[in-house]
Queue: 2 jobs
Job 1
Amino acid sequence: MAAILVVAVVLAAGVGIASRIETALSFGTGDWAAVRFTVWQSFLSSMFSVVLAIPVARALARRQFFGRGLLVTLLGAPFILPVIVAVLGLLSVFGRNGWLNIVLASAGLPTLSIYGLQGVVLAHVFFNLPLATRLLLQGWQTIPAERFRLAAQLHLTPWAFFRVIEWPLIRQILPGVAALIFVICLTSFAVALTLGGGPKATTLELAIYQAFRFDFDLGRAALLSLAQLALAGGAALVALGVIPTISVGGGLDRPQQRWDGVSRVQRRSDMVVITIASGFLLLPLFAIVLRGLIGIPQLPQTVWTAAGASLCVAGMSILVLGFLAVPMAGWIASKPTGSVEAIGLLGLSASPLMIGTGWFILINPVMNPASLALPVTALVNALMALPFCLRILVPRLRDTLRDYGRLSATLGVQGWPLWRWVILPRLAPQIGFAAGLTGALSAGDLGVITLFADADRATLPLQMYRLMGAYRMEAAAGAALLLLIMALGIFWVCDWIGRRYAAS
Amino acid sequence: MLRLDQLKIRLEDFQMTADMSLQKGRKYAVIGPSGAGKSTLLGALCGFVPLTSGRLFWQDQEITDHQPGGRPMTMLFQDNNLFPHLSVLQNVGLGIRPDLRLTDEDRTRISKALARVGLSDQTNKKPGTLSGGQQSRAALARVLVQARPWVLLDEPFAALGPALRNEMLDLMQDLVAETGAGLVMVTHAPEDVRRIADQVIFVGSGKAEAPQPARELMDNPPPELQQYLG
């Protein structure tokens, strides 16, 4: 049922798009440039993310230091960090009047520009370097302790150690991680909207938005959506086989006992790597907090209204997801193989702007799309979170059915009582986590809302974007801090409720 | 009477047959080498393992296609016999009402069952806070309130120490004697067979043999059983 709904939502968007495709319309040079840029920036982003992740993961895997656990936990934070907040943070550090340029200028060096390809890639690396590091670290964690002991016994040189133990692992994990990040970056919109733009740095998603918003050329938007679907869907299908499972559980903060990497050079280099990486991740966040504290008192009333709207959107997304993901997870878990997980992946490859465009075309003749802005945003955001939620819920549900399925069956516990007394209590922590993730992602999303909103209706990320567009940076920073607190707060509250329910 | 009429089970590279009748109130031990299909046989009786052919009767009524919960039997597994997130009371209550809408009468029955197995003071605890022996007792209390004509045991006490296991087997024996239920028990231990079984079902080389009197069989085992017992 739920799976059918997901397919229906995406299909409806497809119908809307198809109805606007005119044969006369053809792909212009600008559109080809958008395709090329989309692929190129995704490629660069994923390459930089994985290559830089190797030394970071390596250093984190073999060092124990105060704050290591916290740092590893923080590596998960960009996942729920609203894109627009991170962008503002990056602007504060790397922007025209950012900290880096101030340092460079005072040293008499030429300043750097964050806009264009380099900015888009920088932001994507900011988001995906931690993800790649976590996935690699997860791989390192699977190396049995015996192998480290054996290596210590054999007195392997650092180079031999790398070749015998680390390189085989990297070779095995890295392609999947790179593919995952590539697919994620293909559908990136908010980063391109804020840091890209112009003929040289427009992604397909941004082109859809521009055709829609500036020219109100629905035919062109539909055509671009189709191209986006083909590109991202194709890439996702190809990558499906190699994409690793995203573990959200703990265990990563437990350092392994190691005897290698004890030389002074290695210790120093690890320290430098960890310092640079944490600086890269933490400085923008620090900037947000610092500037936001100054900005919060200056927030206009519209920001508070928008914050309320965002809370509603997040709440609706969580509800939709509860009705979608939990039954779907139950359905998938009862099947021997997980081929149906592909439906969740459909949400990953079907871009939000594409779905938004389709729905806009369908709704437009019937009523004012702006009046449906918030519900549509909530629905699409829930859909975007679906693949991640399924990956969180399904393994636990499979375990539950494996461990308690027979017992439930002999007792005749089935249907609603099975959910009420067995599945939901066993799944409470995972459901809380998934709900938190969905709520945080939804509250922080700057995507479909840009298509549907009018002057009166906006979510907090959109309102923040408008403030940035009007160069009211202090207020924008205040809104960013508010959004950051909201996203983290929603996540924390949901996660906490889930855990508490499980514990009681 | 529980009648296994020409049962045939085939799973990938495994197959076994069974054709026998089991009398209510008797105690049967299922023994045989690992991998011969002891647990599979119990799973088939309970409805977890699909039958390739053959039929299953309980008192002349066919139950071949009944759901596991709709069969005249209750089963204790090797592990996971209790839901860790539910209290002892709720775990036992599920044996009476699968939707846990317990009436006062139900609660009285549960209290009596818990008193019978010596767990009166553990009613509202979670299984995780109980000892291994207490957990077994809680599961037995549920068997008691279910009061099905057959109790199937798939080595549920295997993880307990010898003394505790004997204690549980004795309690089990007392309970089935009180309810008049029949018992089918998978075991590895010849001493368990001597301790409680009336009859022995030997499972070996693709076939579950018809039950034979326990004492005579154990005192005078045929070659295949002799080889297993060593």
Note: Residues 2-503 of chain A form a domain with the MetI-like fold fold (CATH 1.10.3720.10).
Job 2
Amino acid sequence: MSVCIIDYGMSNLGSIHRALEECGAEVFISEDPKDLATAERIVLPGVGAFKDGMKNLRSRGWIEPLKQEVWENKIPLLGICLGMQLLAEKGYEGGENEGLGLIKGSVKMLEPKDQEERIPHIGWNEIYRVNDDPLFEHIPDGADFYFVHSYHFIPADKKCILTRTPYCGNFVSSIHSGNVYGVQFHPEKSIPTGFQLLKNFLQV
Amino acid sequence: MLKVRIIPTLLWKDVGLVKGVGFDSWRRIGSVLPAIKVYNTRLVDELILVDIIATEEGRPPDFKSVADLSSECFVPLTVGGGIRTIDEVKSLLRAGADKVSINSAAFKEPAIITQIAKKFGSQCVVASIDAKKGTDNMYECFSHSGTKATGKSADQWAKEMESMGAGEILITSIEKDGTMEGYDLDLIRLVTKAVNIPVIASGGAGNYNDMYQALDKGGASAVAAASIFHFTEQTPLEAKMHLAEKGIPIRNTTIV
């Protein structure tokens, strides 16, 4: 299984690369959008701010080739952390910015419900299923994943929601629509459950 | 529910793992890579890796070594020591750091915190503060591995760091560091009350109850510790079991 990790200058690529290899994939990191054509799976990682993320994707020519692979060739795409947020139509980090629009919805800052809830949301927290999905096969409800973020994805269609996480009003921690998946947590940093999720993504 | 984090700190000098007392008398205690491999298998919550002499030597972080170490690290990794520019932050994130911790550079140019937050998001900037109680009972911040007095009080500086865009504060008591006498709870409380971002308590953990105190009485979101894990039989996993018995939420590593 050939997996392309998109390098748009916003990420810690080493650990997702190694993690996917550990899960049995043939992984290549690419700075050239043409490489998408040879990929059977695409991973959009990302640490950083929404605005800079989109700016980099645009200036490096990723947006159209990515949409083509996802929409026309139906290649499964997994967005991780900022990579999930960029799937949205709009983001509100650093002003209003247009996203990839691969899943309908917007990205807004987490809102603490009490003083105990500090932002950013950093650390291990649970995921609970909203809709069953092969991406979470063999991963029990209540499993802890590693999060490090201040913003969250609000999908327009509730059917896209795979899991929620109990913080700041039970935010959406993973989504799925068609062949596009997004997880707010870091599976590559969440052994062993995160590796199970990556293996599941290689199977979908 | 968000869990508290137990974070082993790896102090690093010339690729060796070191331990000091009060930010001084450093001793080599092993190599970094084997330590990271052990922590992988023990499912620790996060790791902090600090190059303690980069700033002193006036050189940038050792990106190559960070890349080598992080490729074996499957737990979240914060890297600090010697970071002065946004390009260095970018290189560290590319080398495999999930977060960077900034200390001395922020005193010289506080705007670096804002620049990093704007470009990479607040969630990846940890403002590291080393403090010590002065004669007037004020907790004063020291930069350059505890050698340079800054005249800033720990709580005011923590607030300033938060307003500049820091996503987390790592507060270390210089006097308690390496002593294993317990965290400086007054200092931790001072900082956790001053800010609304997560605070990592550091410096002085000698047993699991010290960690409980820093979380319960100090209000910290996470506890960092070095000597206790490197020099005693105590482990992050046992620490969590101890904390769980006292009702502190810890990461569930049994559900897999």
Note: The mean pLDDT of chain B is 92.
